[in-house]
Write the C-alpha cells for this entry.
Amino acid sequence: MTTNGECRTNGTRRPKPLLSRSCSENYEINDVDVPGTPKTPRTSTTPGHEKCTFHHDLELDHNPPTREAMLPEMSRSYRLLLESLGENPDRPGLLKTPERAAKAMLFFTKGYDQSLEEVLNDAIFDEDHDEMVVVKDIEMFSMCEHHLVPFYGKVSIGYLPCGKILGLSKLARIVEIYSRRLQVQERLTKQIAVAVTKAVQPAGVAVVVEGVHMCMVMRGVQKINSKTVTSTMLGVFRDDPKTREEFLNLVHSK
C-alpha cells in the first residue's frame, strides 16, 4: 500500500480501496441503510422504540425476544387473518395452519437475526491479488415488503480486491442476510454491494440482481414472464467503463 492509499502490486498502482475514495464520485455509502450497522444506536428509550420487539441489530442494549417466543402472538394473528377471510380456522385442514404460517414467516425473514460481522466470521484474508473476483448466479429468495409475497432470482457479485479477499461462500451468505428480510429489490442490490465494501474495502464492487416478483405475476398486471434487473456499481466499476464491461461480460457469459 502506498502512502496515498493506492494499492501497489508488482509495481503497478491500482485505485484506492473504495472506503478511502470520495463517495461523491459514486454515491454516499452512509446513505444506504445496511441493517446491523445503525448510524446511531437505538435503545429502549429511543422515541418509537419503547415497545420494540425486534431490531435489525441484535447487539443493541435491549434484545428482542427469541423467535420461538414470538410464535404464539404471530399464530393468533394468522388465525385472525383466516377468520377475516371467512374461513374456519378450526377445520382439520387449517387447524395448525396459523402456527405453520408463523414458523414459515420467521424462516423467510431469518436475515433479521444475522449481522454482517457474525456471518463473515473473520473469513477475510490478506492476499496479493488485484484481478476481478466474480461469483454469479447466486440463488436468492426474498419477500416483497409491499405485498408480503415472494420474489426470487439470482445475484451476481464482482469486486476488485485491494490486498484483501473474502471467502467465496461468504458472498452467498451476504446475499442470504439481506434477502431474508422484507425487501425491495433496489435496496437489496445496494445493501449487498455496501456489505462487500465494508467487508474487504475493495477498489470497486458490482452487483446485478435479476428477480421475478410474484406481486407482478399473481396480482396487478399479472405478467408471468416479466423480470426485474437492478444493479449497483461502486468505485472503479462505476468510474471505468472497461472494468464495468468486463464484469458484465463475465456475468452474461455461459
